[in-house]
Write a structure and sequence with these properties.
Thioredoxin-like_sf, mainly alpha, single chain, Thioredoxin domain-containing protein, 156 residues, 3-stranded parallel β-sheet
């Protein structure tokens, strides 16, 4: 038996298998395409005018519009309270800022700490995305020094 003829026969068999697999895939594609056309033709048979006059659909539409309007009003009122931005507050404003909102994130930062700068960057990018949460920061070093000086004065 000639090695080249065996090689040629095996090659032809492999090519035949590949061709048969390609033919099966093509047949599956055609069947899927035909199924897609029949399903779209069934969908086309639905009367669109009938759907437009559906009272349940109109009610659902009106309810959704009302819910969206309510959500927009809520977002606007939260923005008036300082939500949607990352800002620095003073120690005197802390209690009113924190108790005035349901969700608050306060970053007690130190100007010279590298990790605080990283946190600032991330909180600044998060604040506009999460309007229902108030993002504030407070200079911890400044107010710690002030408190220490006040305690020292009280002790004298």
């Amino acid at each position: 038996m000639d090695p080249n003829s065996v090689k040629s026969t095996l090659s032809n068999l492999a090519f035949g298998n590949v061709m048969a697999a390609a033919a099966r895939d093509y047949q599956k594609e055609i069947l899927a395409h035909e199924k897609g056309q029949t399903s779209t033709s069934v969908n086309e048979e639905v009367d669109l005018d009938e759907l437009m006059d559906d009272p349940e659909l109109e009610k659902m539409h009106a309810d959704r519009i009302a819910a969206l309007k309510k959500e927009v009003e809520k977002r606007e009122s939260l923005k008036k309270q300082g939500h949607g931005e990352y800002r620095e507050i003073t120690e005197g404003d802390f209690l009113s800022e924190v108790t005035g909102s349901e969700k608050v994130i306060c970053h007690f930062y130190h100007r010279e700490f590298y990790r605080c700068k990283i946190m600032d960057k991330h909180l600044k990018s998060l604040a506009p995305r999460y309007v229902d949460t108030k993002f504030i920061k407070l200079d911890a070093e400044k107010y710690t020094k002030m408190r220490c000086e006040m305690k020292f004065l009280l002790l004298e």
